[in-house]
Amino acid sequence: MTGVRxxxxxxxxxxxxxxxxxxxxxxxxxxSTTINDPAWAxxxxxxxxxxxxxxxxxxxxxxTVVTRDSTDRPASGVYDICYVNGFQxxxxxxxxxxxxxxxxHRASGARFIDPGWPDETIxxxxxxxxxxGIARVLQPTLERCAKRGFEAVEFDNLDSWTRSRxxxxxxxxxAMASVFVDDAHRLGMAVGQKNTPQLGVRGKAIGFDFAVAExxxxxxxxxxxxxxxxxxxxxxxYTDSLRTSWSAVCASGxxxxxxxxxxxxxxxxxxxxxxxxxx
Length: 279
Fold this sequence. Notes:
The chain is an alpha/beta fold. Helix content is 25%, strand content 19%. The chain has six helices and eleven strands. 46% of the residues are buried.
C-alpha cells in the first residue's frame, strides 16, 4: 500500500481472450495468464464504497464496495477491488529487485523518483519490451488478487507520465494500461481507471470498466469521469483538503453517487484519526 496520493494530476467482435491477446501483442507482447472466468462485472452503483488502503477492517453498515491493498484479503459480502501500484514501485516490496532495467532513469543514470513520493520510483513504460517486462513482474500480484476473490483491480499512478519531465508520455501510459486491462480481464476481474481525468473518453477505449477518483469534487473534475462512466464512478474526498462543507458536497449535483469522505491516511477505526462519512 502506497498511501493516498493526489496526482498532478470494446465491445469486441472476437472472443475477449483472443482480442485481448492480439492487443497485448501489438502494444507490448502477450503475457502469460491463467484464465479463470472470462466474465467480469463493474462495481455496483448503489450503496456505499469504502477505501481501506491503510488497513483492513469490517466494513461499516451499508457498504457495498471495498478497496483493499493487493497484500490484503477481500472483505466478505461486498464487491471487492484490489489496489495495485501499476506504474510505480510499491514501497516495502521486493518485486522490482533485479529489474532495474524496468525502472525509469534520469540522464544522469539515477532512478527517477516520484517528486511527491520519495519512496516510489516511476516505472519505465516507454517501450513495448519494457511494458512486457513490467506486466510479467506484476502478473503474480494480479493472479493473487483473482485467486483471493477480488472482483476488480485498480492500477494506481496511471498519470505518472505527467510527473516524468518528458521522459514518458500519454501514449506510453495508454499502452501499458491496455496490457494491464487485458491481463486483469482474462483473470475475470473488472478494471478501474484511477484518477487521470486527462484521458477523457479514451478510458473506455482502453477497456476500463469504471473509475476511481480522488478528490474530484475538490478539484472540480468529476464530470470528466461521469461523462465517460456514468454512475460507475467512485470518488474519495479527504478531510484535510476539503474546501467546502461535507453537506455541500452531498448536496451537489456534480457529485458521483458513490462518494465518501475519508481521512488522508486511510487509517482503521482503531485510530483517533479515522474518519468515514458518506452522503
